[in-house]
Design brief:
Chain lengths: ~240, ~220
């Protein structure tokens, strides 16, 4: 089956050493991005609390975090975590790290992706809070709820449901950004696709397969989230147009 | 901390910014042009225009840019018979990828104009082209300007990905200096600072323009 002097050999996708490598790559992509996402959500909520707090210093710190992480390329942050961060540790800690953590690049990837995505998640939560009318806060306070109760029982349930579509998009961005960890040597799916090419010269097949993996996972996430969105939508609010 | 490593290699590293800006500008122009065509196709009532454009946009928005770069890198020899140079490969993959994002920004901008405006334009005898040219686009462009500037900042950051195919843009040069001097902390902080300065100038400008626009409406 020649196509312009190129013979496709799709068997690289399942032939013994390569098939296993690809499955492994998919798994690494998945757990790396899910781990980073968990960090991002908790850190993002914390930063968002900082940004809406009444203390000037906390607000300043929160907005600095967001500014710094959003205005530098993710690749620079990744290199910083991988190359520079260990050097900032004291000597014994550094040695311990090099001796005992063989897959440091994986953890650097998780940390970089988590902290970077956190800055975007923080902005997302803040935009959700800002979309709630002031009257809701006033009504909650006047019924005697504390600040925490107001946020926990009145504001958050509304705000979260408003931002769900953007939340889904943000997760997918995090998931796609995980591909960049290949630059520091993490063997996720994009890197595996590239790596197999160096043995077989069939990179076109493997990168095509990797693309399909990204698209399929994205499709699954979108379908699942729109199901969730329908299940928990606020009665009486106009549903998002598809 | 030893900042002399930056001052010694300053000229070499900053020289890479020329290529970074070149990549960013060419991507913006190319991406915007293809993005406009895609957005028009996506807003068109003709199915043979609407479906291909929609599939294109969803396809590229679902992929990481780095994978698009590799894909093109492996695909181009199959189609043309010879390997594409690093610079054309980077530019083409950036344009193809960012066009999908531009298309969605432009579509949202056009859709933000109320349908009544188009109907009024049509009923006063303007053709479809005139309606787009004199009524819809001038307002839509103003609405989407902040998003376009934000996208421009993102593109500027994304050019750092040309690193993977060996283009000597700013980040690659910092990386090369680090490989020789082994001063990662100073060098990557410096790289971050340079990107930060340029990108926050862009973000700030977009914020200003938005504020100004809000004021001009009231």
């Amino acid at each position: 089956m020649g196509f312009l002097n190129y013979t496709f050999d799709w068997s690289v996708l399942w032939r013994p050493p390569y098939g296993g490598l690809l499955i492994n790559g998919i798994l690494i992509t998945l757990h790396l991005s899910i781990l980073a996402w968990m960090i991002a959500v908790w850190l993002g909520i914390t930063i968002c609390v900082f940004r809406v707090s009444p203390f000037v210093l906390a607000r300043f710190a929160g907005s600095m975090y967001v500014q710094i992480f959003r205005n530098t390329p993710f690749l620079v942050q990744l290199f910083f975590w991988y190359f520079a961060a260990p050097l900032l540790l004291p000597k014994p800690a550094q040695e311990w790290l090099y001796d005992n953590v063989p897959n440091y690049s994986y953890w650097a990837g998780v940390a970089a992706l988590g902290t970077y995505t956190a800055s975007r998640v923080a902005e997302l939560f803040r935009s959700g809070l800002l979309s709630i009318s002031r009257d809701q806060y006033r009504a909650a306070y006047s019924t005697g709820l504390t600040v925490f109760q107001t946020y926990r029982y009145v504001i958050f349930p509304y705000a979260f449901r408003i931002i769900i579509p953007a939340f889904t998009t943000e997760f997918l961005t995090c998931f796609k950004n995980s591909a960049l960890t290949m630059t520091i040597g993490v063997m996720e799916i994009t890197h595996t696709a590239y790596y197999i090419d160096s043995f077989t010269w069939h990179g076109l097949e493997t990168t095509t397969a990797a693309s399909l993996v990204y698209l399929c996972i994205a499709l699954c996430v979108v379908l699942f989230m729109s199901f969730i969105e329908k299940r928990i939508h606020i009665p009486g609010m106009i549903a998002r147009e598809q | 901390m030893d900042l002399s490593v930056i001052s010694i290699n300053f000229k070499f590293m900053i020289g890479g910014l020329v290529l970074t800006f070149e990549l960013a500008l060419m991507t913006m122009v190319g991406g915007l042009l293809i993005g406009i065509i895609l957005a028009m196709a996506r807003l068109s009532p003709r199915p043979w225009l609407y479906y291909p454009a929609t599939v294109y946009i969803h396809f590229f928005r679902g992929l990481p840019l780095i994978l698009v770069i590799f894909w093109l890198y492996f695909l181009s020899p199959v189609i043309t018979g010879k390997s594409l140079g690093a610079f054309p490969a980077a530019i083409i993959s950036f344009i193809v990828f960012e066009a999908a994002y531009f298309a969605e920004i432009i579509r949202a901008g056009v859709q933000s104009i109320s349908h009544g405006q188009t109907m009024a334009a049509h009923s006063s005898g303007l053709t479809a082209y005139q309606t787009a040219r004199y009524v819809v686009l001038p307002q839509a462009l103003r609405n989407m300007f902040p998003s376009l500037v934000t996208q421009a900042v993102i593109i500027f950051q994304d050019t750092s990905l040309a690193y993977v195919i060996g283009l000597r843009e700013f980040l690659r040069r910092v990386n090369l200096v680090d490989a020789r001097e082994a001063r990662s902390v100073e060098l990557y902080l410096f790289a971050g600072l340079v990107y930060f300065a340029i990108c926050s100038a862009g973000s700030l400008a977009s914020h200003r323009i938005e504020k100004q626009r809000e004021r001009s409406y009231h």
